[in-house]
Amino acid sequence: MKLLKLSLVFLVALFWGACNNDDESSCDQNGWLGTYTGTTDCLSGDEEVTVTITASGSEDLLMRYETATGGVDIGPFVIDGCKATRSSMDPSSLDSFVGELELDGGNLSYTQTRTVAGTASSCTFDANK
Asked: How far apart are the first and last CA of the chain?
């Protein structure tokens, strides 16, 4: 009987540990860092993209976005689990920018919406580490 009870306790502990969400721990700041390559769909059509994610302070992210036609640094992005966002607005012109990163294992996706003079444009990319 003691062996049965001990086995039951062991199984409960095993299943309890298996139910922990390991993906969340990989979405801390260190889990985001690295270089990702993929394809972007933007105003100029599909093209190859290299994205480098680095730390900004102890909690946020910076993104270096490079294609054959140029590169840009965007940030800081504020991490919220496996998502990170950056937004800004110019109150005088109402121009705005919203960038959203999402991490799923080694896959990184990005959506950017920029509104200038009331006209919105968006870019997306999917990349892998």
From this structure: 51
